[in-house]
């Protein structure tokens, strides 16, 4: 495996994470995250060929429920904490079709 | 009088309630008084609703009077780390982004405690979204270590540990993703347990790293831990990772003695970086077990050194996704005057997340971003398998429990490590493997250092081997009086 | 140079389940905003997903229906992107281990006329997977409102290989899917309710070439007509770009319904970085062969298989099969009637014409007629009706009236005929009397017939039928009249 680059395109990643960072934060984080990524390099020296990844601590299958309805939120409960609401809906800044 | 009462183990309080020597209202009032008296110094609580607690206590007393007491926890005050939902009360996760959030539902553990008659009292301070090892990352206040108010209580469940240590509550719940129960338990001199992944439902626990998080108890004694674990453990159909297993009567089983344990001592946990006084106290504990007939076995867990890397890749990746829902849209704080929809997210999250949360979300976003998944996340998951295999092969070879220090050092000073995240991450070095392997772990006090700070002993058990793990821990705990020491506040 | 299009479709179909994909709150269309929600749907802190077994089984049925491989193990992944209609800001989906791999859909292109079968083609599928839908945004002048009722409903995403070659093939593909999915009860595919939405990937290349050129993607096309028009526009646009020596840019384009054109929305440089990873909150599913066998036993015959069988086994013309077979309850009604009385052609005519017409004119307002399952006239009664005609008990003329009565009252045809005295009269004496009267009263047609105008006899027959209220046996009447006129 190639050595992972140990510097982060902080603007790109903060953009993906939707977090505004101040210039000072960008500088500090770049250095700190660089150190941490450098520390992660020790993983590159382990032979993981043929090793299955662990996604769950204990494997289990078919954990599901039958298709039977349970109670929904009472009217108003859904928007109990909404920062802005109108007509029982959440108000958001106008968005363009982007999804 | 009330101070002595609030330092009593929950099992004793439960007996007193059962005998009629104490009412739940008296006990709850004593707890409230104690909190009023010392929490300005300790800072364990983010929220207390004394009225609601007294009302629940009154209900408990009335039940008992009618002969309808619900079990050993009926009438006992229990506090929750503020990452566990309690309907009608705030849930902040110690984050400004949830500053005004009131939970409209109960976590499964909360429902179970209510059904057992527990008096739920208080939401306890923590590192923001459970990210940290010192509770200094709380968005609202610092919690002090009751044994030395200039020291950190550990984290992330620092409030839950400090409240028990300070005699503010007999029982609390915390959550443990990489050591967040065991490390503060060690640093505050109380008992703290992380159950096997899947033993306790995560429904209603705000997720940090979903594949590692577990809820677990803090208490003054191992017996108290057994008592509350019985109530909160067990399958929950709302959590797909909850395991279908019968829950034994842990507390009764404690008394079934067995001295022929094989205790594994991993050499990787006694190397460089271990504080000499911690080593000495832990070695004394090893001698205790030897004296009780246990077989000691030096073992090797060769991939231990990789655990911090694996943990910080998996945990940050999962948290970057888990925390995406805190976005300023449906229920969180919302930034003022955003330029557009995207700016609303960026400002809300930029203004309301603390530095450690931002750091971890950005790191996690990076390791999952296009082109890096295989190099980081997938590789970390594979090394996670190796770490788990280290433990499982020792268990297969006859080891019953693994014994280690909980933390390389006792509590450090407030502010000492805040500028060096990597150094802070290394404080979790002895606790992380347990989460990566999904195993149960318990920490209890095994002595004090020359500065009077508690030292934690960690025992790690087999998957769903809580009954045996508690037995081994109880053997030590019941034979020592460390748990009777109380800090002066 | 001539160009040909290369089109792949991604079709999102809302599965027919009672509750949502990852939590057991009910879903219906058209409820008050944010009432079909719970802590899980709103993405509150601490909430966790739990799979809906019925949705998984419906997806497996889809795979079995179209010959997909249903791998033993399938898992769930998070697709991370921020959007206000996406409560967790990640969508639970399936990335590299979907429930269905491969498979194919048979389509029929329009024939030269309605009565003639069109060309059939096989459209290969890449995969189909299960995911959750998002909420609904309504846009206003200064802001938007979000309703999370739809959020979390189970969506089946069906991805075709890029093997479609025209807008017409896209239409045929969507129609074939709609018919099969609604017949199998997998989805109602009601496009008005947003139950079937489509993304189209389009590129063009010189005819005869096998290269894959740069493609563009049109998202959220929510009617078959929009798919057809957007694809047709995009083919023309790209062809012109190449003919003018230009270059097609990889991008997402929006279909402007009112203007009838596509416009650029987002280029590849700004493509999403979805950061897929396995969802730690959900366990994988493992589908044993027994489950597949059980589900396979419960699948309806596909439309075109059934059409071929109806033409071969019942000798039905294409036109009748093209009415009966897309409508499974109607086809089953037909077969039930044939099982009672083996005259498929006649029965098919009654079912495809008379019954369908009556159904269309009945039922509650706004529901598009009465479903065949509620038809008062049963398969047995239609079989009985055809048999009464065959046995010469009633004329086909009278049968129309009997059918109408059957549909109105649900009574058996024999009872209706009996009660209303509609039996054909075979009383030669009575009819001969009436014939004599008619001949005497209608000298003009009699004269014309005798002068060699064969058709003139029909006027006389009409008069007799009128006088007997249709009960005269037509054959007997013809014989009688000719005999009397020949005298």
Concise overview:
Chain B has 489 residues and is α/β, with parallel strands linked by helices.
Overall number of strands of chain B? 11
Note the main sheet of chain C: 9 strands, mixed
In terms of DSSP E residues, the strand content of chain B is: 5-15%
Tell me what portion of residues of chain C adopts beta-strand conformation. 15-25%
How many domains of chain B?
2
C-alpha Rg of chain C, in Å? 30 Å
Greatest interface and its residue counts? Answer: A-B, 54 and 73 residues
Structural class of chain B: alpha/beta
Instruction: Report, as a whole number of angstroms, the end-to-end distance of chain C.
Output: 80 Å
Q: Sketch the topology of chain B as an H/E string, one letter per element.
A: HHHEHEHEHEHEEHHEHEHHHHEHHEEH
Low confidence ranges of chain C: none
According to CATH, what is the topology of the largest domain in chain B?
Answer: Amidase signature (AS) enzymes
Q: Name the CATH superfamily classification of the largest domain in chain B.
A: Amidase signature (AS) domain
Kindly describe this structure.
The complex is a heterotrimer of chains A (99), B (489) and C (487). Chain A has a domain at 1-43: Histone, subunit A (Orthogonal Bundle), CATH 1.10.20. Helices cover 25% and strands 9% of the residues of chain A. Chain A has 2 helices and 3 strands. Chain A has helices spanning 10-16, 23-40; strands at residues 64-65, 85-86, 89-93. Chain A is flat and about 55 Å long. Chain B has 2 domains: 2-261 and 400-484, Alpha-Beta Complex (Amidase signature (AS) enzymes); 306-378, no CATH class. Chain B has 17 helices and 11 strands. Chain B has helices spanning 2-6, 10-19, 24-42, 50-65, 108-115, 158-165, 182-188, 222-232, 250-253, 276-291, 307-322, 341-352, 355-368, 374-396, 421-425, 432-437, 466-477; strands at 45-47, 77-81, 119-124, 171-176, 191-194, 214-219, 262-266, 295-299, 401-405, 441-448, 454-460. An 11-stranded mixed β-sheet of chain B has the order 1-3-2-4-6-5-10-11-9-7-8, with helices on both faces. The longest helix of chain B has 23 residues, at 374-396. Chain C is α+β, with helices and mostly antiparallel strands. Helices cover 39% and strands 19% of the residues of chain C. Chain C is built from 15 helices and 17 strands. In chain C, helix 12 (428-441) crosses helix 15 (474-486). The longest helix of chain C has 20 residues, at 224-243. The mean pLDDT of chain C is 93. Chains in contact: A-B, A-C, B-C. Chains A and B meet through helix 1, helix 2, strand 1 and strand 3 of A and helix 11, helix 12, helix 13, helix 14 and helix 15 of B. Strand 3 (89-93) of chain A pairs antiparallel with strand 10 of chain C.
């Amino acid at each position: 495996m190639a050595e992972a680059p140990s510097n982060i395109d902080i603007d790109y990643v903060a953009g993906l994470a939707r977090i505004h960072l101040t210039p000072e934060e960008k500088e500090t984080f770049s250095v700190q995250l660089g150190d941490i990524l450098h520390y992660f390099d020790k993983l590159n020296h382990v032979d993981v060929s043929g090793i299955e990844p662990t996604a769950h601590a204990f494997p289990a299958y078919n954990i599901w429920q039958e298709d039977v309805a349970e109670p929904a939120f009472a009217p108003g409960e859904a928007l109990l904490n909404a920062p802005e609401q109108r007509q029982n809906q959440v108000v958001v800044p106008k968005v363009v079709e982007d999804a | 009088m009330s101070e002595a009462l609030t330092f009593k183990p929950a099992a004793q309080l439960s007996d007193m309630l059962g005998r009629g020597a104490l009412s739940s209202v008296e006990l709850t009032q004593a707890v409230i008084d104690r909190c009023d008296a010392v929490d300005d110094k300790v800072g364990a609580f983010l929220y207390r609703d004394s009225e609601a607690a007294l009302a629940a206590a009154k209900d408990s007393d009335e039940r008992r009077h009618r002969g309808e007491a619900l079990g050993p926890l009926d009438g006992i005050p229990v506090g929750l780390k503020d990452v566990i939902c309690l309907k009608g009360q705030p849930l902040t996760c110690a984050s400004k982004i949830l500053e005004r959030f009131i939970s409209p539902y109960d976590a499964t553990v909360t429902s179970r405690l209510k059904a057992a008659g527990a008096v739920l009292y208080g939401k306890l301070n923590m590192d923001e979204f459970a990210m940290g090892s010192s509770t200094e990352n709380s968005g609202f206040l610092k919690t002090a270590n009751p044994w030395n108010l200039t020291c950190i209580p550990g984290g992330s469940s620092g409030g839950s540990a400090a409240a028990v240590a300070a005699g503010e509550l007999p029982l609390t719940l915390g959550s443990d993703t990489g050591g967040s129960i065991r490390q503060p338990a060690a640093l505050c001199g109380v008992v703290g347990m992380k159950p096997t992944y899947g033993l306790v439902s995560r429904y209603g626990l705000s997720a940090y790293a979903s594949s590692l998080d577990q809820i677990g108890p803090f208490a003054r004694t191992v017996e108290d831990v057994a008592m509350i674990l019985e109530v909160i453990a067990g399958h929950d159909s709302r959590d797909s990772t909850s395991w279908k297993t019968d829950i034994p009567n842990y507390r009764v089983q404690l008394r079934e003695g067995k001295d022929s344990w094989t205790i594994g001592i991993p050499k990787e946990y006694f190397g460089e970086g271990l504080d000499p006084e911690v080593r000495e106290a832990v070695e004394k504990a090893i001698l205790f077990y030897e004296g009780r007939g246990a077989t000691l076995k030096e073992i090797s867990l060769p991939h231990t050194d990789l655990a911090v890397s694996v943990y910080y890749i998996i945990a940050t990746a999962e948290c970057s996704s888990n925390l995406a829902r805190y976005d300023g849209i449906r229920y969180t704080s919302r930034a003022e005057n955003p330029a557009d929809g995207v700016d609303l997210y960026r400002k809300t999250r930029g203004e309301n997340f603390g530095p450690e949360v931002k750091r971890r979300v950005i790191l996690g976003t990076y390791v999952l971003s296009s082109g890096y998944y295989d190099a980081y996340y997938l590789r970390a998951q594979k090394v996670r398998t190796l770490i788990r295999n280290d433990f499982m092969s020792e268990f297969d070879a006859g080891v019953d429990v693994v014994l280690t220090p909980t933390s390389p050092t006792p509590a450090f000073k407030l502010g000492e490590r805040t500028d060096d995240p990597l150094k802070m991450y290394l404080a979790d070095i002895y606790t992380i493997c347990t989460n990566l392997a999904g195993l149960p772990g318990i920490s209890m006090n095994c002595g004090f250092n020359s500065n009077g700070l508690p030292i934690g002993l960690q025992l790690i058990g087999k998957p769903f081997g809580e009954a045996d793990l508690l037995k081994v821990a109880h053997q030590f705990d019941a034979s020592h009086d460390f748990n009777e020491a109380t800090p002066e506040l | 140079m001539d160009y040909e299009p290369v089109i792949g479709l991604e079709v999102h179909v809302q599965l027919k389940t009672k509750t949502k994909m990852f939590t057991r709150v009910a879903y219906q269309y058209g409820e008050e905003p944010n009432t079909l929600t719970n802590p899980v749907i709103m993405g509150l802190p601490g909430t966790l997903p739990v799979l809906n077994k019925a949705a998984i089984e419906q997806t497996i049925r889809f795979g079995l229906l179209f010959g997909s491989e249903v791998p033993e193990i399938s898992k769930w992944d998070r697709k991370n992107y921020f959007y206000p209609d996406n409560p967790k800001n990640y969508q639970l989906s399936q990335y590299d281990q979907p429930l269905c791999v491969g498979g194919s859909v048979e389509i029929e292109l329009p024939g030269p006329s309605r009565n003639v079968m069109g060309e059939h083609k096989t459209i290969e599928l890449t995969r189909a997977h299960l995911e959750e839908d998002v909420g609904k945004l309504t846009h206003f002048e200064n802001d938007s409102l979000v309703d999370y009722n739809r959020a979390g409903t189970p969506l089946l995403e069906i991805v075709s290989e890029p093997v479609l070659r025209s807008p017409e093939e896209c239409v045929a593909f969507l129609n074939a899917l709609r018919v099969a999915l609604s017949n199998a009860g997998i989805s109602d595919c009601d496009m008005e309710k947003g139950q079937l939405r489509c993304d189209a990937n389009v590129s063009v290349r010189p005819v005869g070439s096998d290269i894959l050129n740069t493609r563009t993607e049109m998202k959220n096309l929510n009617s078959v007509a929009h798919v057809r028009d957007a694809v047709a526009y995009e083919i023309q646009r790209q062809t012109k770009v190449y003919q003018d020596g230009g270059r097609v840019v990889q991008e997402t384009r929006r279909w402007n319904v009112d203007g009838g054109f596509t416009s650029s929305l987002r280029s590849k440089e700004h493509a999403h970085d979805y950061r897929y990873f396995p969802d730690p909150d959900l366990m994988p599913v493992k589908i044993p062969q027994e489950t597949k066998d059980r589900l396979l036993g419960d699948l309806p015959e596909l439309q075109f298989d059934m059409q071929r069988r109806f033409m071969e086994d019942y000798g039905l013309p294409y036109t009748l099969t093209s009415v009966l077979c897309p409508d499974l309850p109607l086809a089953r009604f037909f077969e039930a009637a044939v099982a009672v009385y083996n005259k498929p052609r006649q029965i098919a005519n009654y079912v495809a014409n008379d019954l369908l017409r009556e159904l269309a004119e009945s039922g509650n307002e706004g529901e598009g007629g009465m479903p065949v399952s509620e038809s008062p006239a049963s398969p047995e009664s239609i079989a009985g009706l055809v048999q009464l005609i065959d046995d010469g008990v009633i004329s086909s003329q009278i049968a129309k009236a009997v059918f109408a009565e059957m549909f109105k009252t649900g009574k058996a045809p024999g009872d209706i005929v009996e009660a209303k005295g509609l039996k054909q009269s075979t009383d030669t004496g009575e009819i001969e009397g009436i014939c004599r009267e008619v001949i005497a009263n209608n000298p003009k047609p009699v004269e014309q017939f005798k002068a060699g105008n064969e058709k003139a006899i029909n006027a006389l027959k009409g008069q007799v039928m009128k006088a007997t209220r249709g009960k005269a046996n037509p054959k007997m009447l013809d014989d009688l009249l000719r005999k009397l006129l020949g005298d």
